[in-house]
Amino acid sequence: MVGNRQRLFPTNFPIFSCISRVSRAKIKTMIEQAKLILKKVFGYDAFRSLQEPIIRNVLEKKDTLVIMPTGGGKSLCYQIPALIFNGLTIVVSPLISLMKDQVEQMTDLKVPAVLLNSSLSYEEYVHNVGKIRRNEVKLLYVAPETLLKPKILEMLATVPIDCLTIDEAHCISEWGHDFRPEYRQMAEVRKQFPSAVCMALTATATPRVQRDITKTLHFEESNEFVASFNRENLFLKIDPKQNAFPQLVRFLERYPNQSGIIYCFTRRQVDELSQKLEIKGYSVKPYHAGLDEEQRKRNQELFIRDDIQLIVATIAFGMGINKSNIRFVVHYDLPKNIESYYQEIGRAGRDGLRADCLLLFGYGDIRKIRYFIDQKEGQEQQVANMHLAALLRFAETHVCRRIPLLAYFGENYTQENCGMCDNCLRQGQGLADLTIPAQKFLSCVRKTGEIFGAAHIIDVLLGSKSQKIAKFNHQELSTYGIGKELSKSQWFHLSRQFIQKGLLSQDPEFGGLKLDKNGYEVLRGREKFMGLLREEEEQEERTEMKTAKVKATAVQLGEEDRELFEQLRGKRKELATLYHLPPYLIFSDKTLSAMAVSSPRLPEDLLDIHGVGEAKLERYGKTFFDIIHHFRRKQ
Question: Which of 143, 249, 304, 509 lies at a 20 to 30 A Cα distance from 479?
């Protein structure tokens, strides 16, 4: 192993003691101390986005609200102050998986952290409480229900508390998508720790939810930090759901041996889809609340540790999962709202490399969501309807996907072309005169009685021999079979444009199409229709892969570098199994990519690579250096 363990980690608080000693001797400001921790402990050269002013605010003991996208680096905003404060930092977290993941990460970095929740055995619980009482812990992760217990509050009253961090703070607000009453009580709990600064963090909060959090926790608005919600490395795509399973399989073929999540609306769909994928030879497991706890835990661990490629899940999966190498997220069904969609796609590409997000959009899914909304009452139903309307505006938009998505969170996106969504890539094709296809479609809508949805109209245009067409004698219409020059997917794409541009209106419950005034003008030849004619799916996928620019921090690998990357990835998996850790906690794909293009002369040179701090260098540095060195010598 490299490094001098005795020199770097001399006391019970390995990292804190080191940083304190260095700061007293050489560093004049707390921010310089924070930057030293950032490099030495976490292996990062510079803060991202708003991290530095947020940390400064917390260190000055000012209550702080942080709105930052998933993967934007929220955790560092309380982890670094925790290593500078003398006392304990409490982190309130809603899910066991989130706490477990964070504690494993901190422990691997030699940061003293523990959790208290129902997953612990009696012996483990007592052991962790003892460490807290003896001031041997810098970070305590705890569920809100646990923190509210009188015995826990009494125990914490005996130790110095410097920071109370409330993670996933949108759970406080009744206007949020994941309201939890226990979170509302955190306003009272913080009174138990008058000397502690309070921090609230979330990735999904509309302006209304932000105001609710601030009001509930009695924060000053001047101490709000709202980062951009734009995840530049996520490619956003929405396809009409036509033949969902083959569509999914074509998508998955682009990601051999890569990790991905597929979200479904119901437990039954999760079970059926995971079985079908398994029969096709995919490495996949299901996840939903209907499985017993042990099976859910096992399937999640298999996915986190890269033992399986795919997880098919309901929304019960993913909150707090910090797996950084998820390369894609698929919504097989329509999510409930934009917050859920944003949170779920946010689980992809946390390493900063490109990740793809596909949503299969079918009007049948809208009916399912409306059914559940109808079971609600009063304000709850009102909020749900607002959420659905915003989601449909996003799904049906013809402009850059990021414009309505970010606007929902109060952000104005002004870039003309993001280059990382399906709409922006198609905009480069330019508008074409599609008046004749539009007239064919509109005429068919009218001749069928203006009661049928797009799927049936397209079947008539394509000359389908379906039972439904025979039932209504639509094979006798003059529009039967006149649209064979376009594919089904092209007609579906055009039908969405007809709706978006006001040629057609659609029954929100049943999906039936009806001509509007603009539609009659086009049908009668008084107006032209200018639109986009979509490429065939296979050609479009090639265009996406070739054209989309990866903005953030991706490292482009040549053939030889890719070979070395795979060797490093194999060693990472081997070590992860040995140490019972998720592979991404050892090094992220981004770090391995940087290693694959590097030529270090000594193991210590790895410290120049993003994500390699001194603790990881000591534990893993020589192993990965030897692989790189041996590979370079053979070249």
Answer: 509
State residue 398's pLDDT score: 78
* Mean pLDDT value of segment 506-527: 87
Question: Two tokens at 28?
Answer: 């004049």
pLDDT at 71: 74
CA atoms 242, 243, 245, 246: torsion sign? negative
| Between 354 and 363, residue with greater pLDDT | 354
Chain segment 407-449, per-residue pLDDT in tens? 988 889 988 889 999 888 876 566 789 999 999 999 999 999 9
With beta carbons less than 8 A apart as the criterion, state whether 426 and 445 touch: no
List C-alpha distances in Å: 358 to 238, 239, 341, 387: 6, 7, 11, 20
Neighbours of 253 (CB within 10 A): 9
**Residue 281 exposed, middle or buried by CB count within 10 Å (0-12, 13-18, 19+):** exposed
Question: Is 524 or 553 the better-scoring residue by pLDDT?
Answer: 524
pLDDT of residue 123 exceeding 60, the answer is yes
CA atoms within 13 A on the CB side of 633: 7
Question: Which of 394, 94, 358 lies closest to 236, judged by CA?
Answer: 358
* Sheet containing 355-361: order of strands: 234-240, 355-361, 326-331, 259-263, 310-313, 284-287
The SS3 assignment for 331 reads strand
DSSP codes joined into one string, 531-574: E--PPPHHHHHHHHHHH----SS-----HHHHHHHHHHHHHHHH
Q: What tens digit of pLDDT does each residue of 11-45 get?
A: 344 444 444 433 343 335 778 889 989 988 988 88
> Looking at residue 507, what is its pLDDT?
80
Three-class DSSP category at 227: coil
What is the pTM (predicted TM-score) of this model?
Answer: 0.73
How far apart CA 317 and CA 412 sit, in angstroms, is: 30
Backbone region of residue 17 per phi and psi (left: phi > 0; alpha: psi in -120 to 50; beta: other values):
alpha
Domains by residue range for the chain, with CATH: 5-226 (3.40.50.300), 234-417 (3.40.50.300), 432-534 (1.10.10.10), 559-634 (1.10.150.80)
